[in-house]
Structure formats: C-alpha cells, structure tokens
Write the structure tokens for this entry.
Amino acid sequence: MFAAKRGRLALIGVVAVGAVVALAGCASGDPLGGGGSTASSGSKTLVVGSQDYYSNEIIAEIYSQALESNGFTVDRQFRIGQREVYLPDIKDGKIDVFPEYTGSLLQALDKSAKGGTADETYAELKDALPDNLSVLDKADATDQNSWTVTQAFAKKYNLTDIASLKNVTEPITVGGNSELETRPYGPTALKDKYGVTIAGFTPVEDSGGPLTVKALVDNQIQLANIYTADPNIKSNDLVALDDPDGLFFPDNVVPVVSKKVDDKAAGVINKVQRALSAKDLVDLNAKSVNDKESADKIAAAWLKQANLF
C-alpha cells in the first residue's frame, strides 16, 4: 500500500533494533484478552500508521492494541517512511490514526508557524490541520529534536546551549538525514540565527540512531540531530544542548486522526495519551534499542503495567 522508504530512523542490517522491523507488520493479539487483531464483522476497521522509526512504531502498536481490546479491527501500516512520504496519505484519508509530534508536524504544515509553549504549539497545530483531520490529546511524552554533541566536545568548548556553538574554533561537521539540510532548524538556521558556521554536512540516514551516534562518538561528525527520548544519549554520555530560544518547537506525542475515528475510538486513544509520560517513552525505547524487544511485546507489557484496558 505504501512505498518503503527511509524514515525518521531507518535502521539497517545488523542494527540492534532489527527485531522491531521484522515484526512491525504483524497484527499482534491483544495482551489483555481483548480479542486480538480480528473482531466481529460489525466492528470498525481503522488503519493505524507509523513512521519508519522504532519509537514511533511502538506508540502506533500501543494505539493498535488498545483499539483492538475495545472491539476495533486494526489494519497496521507501519514503518511507512519520512513525513514527506506519509503525510499525503494522511491528508488523503488513507490512514486513520497516526502518532505524530506537535512541533515537527506544525512546521511541516505551516512554514511560517510561530510555535511557542507546548500548549501554544498544540493550539496552532489544530488550526493548521486540513478540515478532514484532527488531533486528539497531546501526551506529556515528548521526542524532542536536539542538537547533540559528545561530553568531551562540550567540555572542550564550554558548550551549554545551541548559541554557545559560536565558541567552537574548529570546523564543525553536522550529521543527519539528508532532509535535515532543509529543515527550519537545520545548518542554515544555525548560521542565520546564531552565527555558527558549519564546515560540512554528512548524511547519516538513521535519524539520530546508532549509526549517527557512532559517527559522533568517533568524531566523524561533531554535531548531530538526535531525539531526546533516545536512550543512546544517556548510555553514550552525550550532551543535548539547551534550546532557550525555541529553535526547536515542542514535540509532544499527538495522534492525528481522520473523521473515521469516532468518540469511542478517540476515548481509547486519549486514555493512552494521558498515561504516556516522557520517562515512559525513554524506557520503551530502551527496550527496543538495548533489549532488542519487538514493538508488539513492548506495547503489550506497557499496557499491562499501566493497567489500561
């Protein structure tokens, strides 16, 4: 149904989270006895999508299992690709439920968006959506963009926030997905907003994943765009630079839904949203990256631990 393209975290080959990819498309049964991936002929089928990014897939799987436990049939369309790939399908009504991130989606829909606080960004996102789409409740959980460096690099140049990158006297090579070069918070923004000169850009097509982290640790790149819910930040002693000026918009987890999502389905997903914390998301991601667990097992365990459905 959808073209398989590189996405936000397109993991390859022997990357530890390969097990997630292998099991992503499987319609897993509900761990809490809610009836699995098939339901009665009278139930409503909802298409749930996810980015090609393990963390996003885990959230999509949580939504899917929660919906199944409440009598909905779920058609999983996971690991579709980058936002440029899947957003047209959401707009066309081919996907009914998609976990998104408030600030990043807002900037994709409105290049002149103002952003602001988490609540202001969420409100602006509501206004920016096409008439056939809406967003449900935003979660406390965030997967925030960050400009990240090694601890040694930060110490050498007394780096604390993004603006302090001006202190660096050696050439800075940035690493990230090829799309990063044209994003509103990319290398051009670093130069225009902070006067930081970037010497070069190295494409690393796993969106801040293990390949990007290795390139950073090995000093092949000095600056990387890594998401703050990534457990690799802590385990590799990396430093996500502070962003007091709001270069990155707040990125709370938020479901984008079609008109096919009725009040019952919305209530199910919002219950998940109210329970999903920032710490939860980091812990869920660690189970994928470090423990090599599949998305369906991670989702099932979290739903059980959270006493949902």
Strands lie at 45-49, 73-77, 97-101, 133-135, 147-150, 173-176, 200-203, 223-225, 238-240, 253-258. The CA atoms of residues 62 and 165 lie 38 Å apart. The chain has twelve helices and ten strands.
